[in-house]
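Design review, sub-item: ligand-bound model
Attendees: FS, YL, KQ
YL presented the inputs for the ME8 complex:
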Amino acid sequence: MERIYLTTPLYYVNAEPHLGHTYTTVIADTLKRYYLSQGVEAYLLTGTDEHGDKIAQAARENGTEPKLYADRISAIFRSTWDSCGISYDHFIRTTDSYHVEVVQRILTKIYEAGDIYFGEYGGTYCFGCERFYTEKELIEGKCPDHLKEPTYIREKNYFFRMGKYQQQLVDHIRSNPEFIRPERYRSEVLAFLREPLEDLCISRPKSRLQWGIPLPFDSEYVTYVWFDALINYVSGLQLRGEDFFRAFWPKANHLVAKDILKPHGIFWPTMLMAAGLPLYERLNVHGYWIMDSGKMSKSLGNVVRPLEMKERYGMDAFRYFLLREMVFGQDATFSLESFVTRINADLANNLGNLVSRVLAMQQRYFEGIVQPLGASRAEEDQQLREAFVRAEADLESHMEKLHFHRALEAIWGAVDSTNRYIVQTGPFVLFKEPEKRPRVGEILHHLLEALRVTACLLSPFLPDTAEKIKSFLNISTSVSARHPVWGGCFPPGHTVRKPIVLFPRIETEA
Ligand code: ME8
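KQ shared the predicted structure:
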């Protein structure tokens, strides 16, 4: 049995879910549904990152304790993904006791092996990023992310001998071209590794920060938040037992945005090497969603919230836009205007109209009863069938490369072919001649079949829409698209339902 293990980042509980978090979570969900439809056993992990300075500070600002604060925001993430229909298998929190145990076990192992040492370090530290910055990394003396001057601090801490694994990591990346993808991020990591890799400070003294996992070998310190959080990918699987871990871990596919390339592409694999664990299979890195009105921020009031999008436009419309508009690996722009244009053109007009048109004809001409196919081998029928076979093959190769936008284009190519088929065959003209009615019945049978396969192909991307189309067709939702047997799905006398509008046109105030 083939397997895949998909992960999203563990989101910080200092902000509520927005467009960016939703994108990564939606692609993870789409991949999981896609792999399941291919007969692959898929496991999806998501959750929240709850320790560290950032969270302690956010809790203080909210006048509460870090754990209570984390409980509240973590629950918001979880219920948001539930409402959005995300098919995660487990939701992990870095404050879960089994996770804490695994982190401490790995720390002990690495410490005992001599790859963690005690030392003193002075440097410029950004509290927002929770890390030290070298002079070279600062832009005009400021942290490039927070645009604030870092604070100089000097303290004794524990360090992980990350530098020791530099060559081993470079060799692994070189001999596994798909380890970090797309290529631009792989090159970025390799470029970074051309300079000597410094050791990583993995502790914070309790005098400065208490909100973290205590180091098992020194109670005066807590674990650096990244060293804790990355381990979730292992603890979230080990929870299901060692066999489960061994079966899924080699197929681990992390999904992250470019902001956290370095911890995932450098810290994490070297940590795994030191812990004596095999490396993940792939790190899949996407770009950033940019708002056309500037950086998404509370103060600008341009934060896109998944539940608001779902309520106003439906989750599938939102999913469609996210998957169709971003080229995996590159940045994309979000604007309500482009959202409305996309949804109206592709979903309301193209797909929506096709579905209602076909079902309306079936009602009007045959009271919903599907007519026999007969032995006709009309050229147009053949072409329609081939359009779907091609779409399915293209979709598979695009999904292999995480080209979600191309996969959707492939499906819409088949939808276009179906619309063309209606124009070519002209059932509404033929129906006027009674002796041509059996052919009209046949044409509609092909069209219903086209809708059935469209629904099957769409289901990982737009699961609710796929179900609706299948329910209009009055067929089981478990019907799969693989190797579609054209015409085998509607037995004699099968009746399809009347359509209801799939995607209402979004009207905007002029
Ligand atoms: O970094 N565009 O958590 P985080 C696209 N806790 N994706 C975006 C985005 C945007 N504008 N904004 C956020 C952390 N994301 C750590 C991770 S993992 C062990 C620890 C998504 O809450 C994207 O997936 O800041 C990005 O990598 C992630 O949210 C960062 O989430």
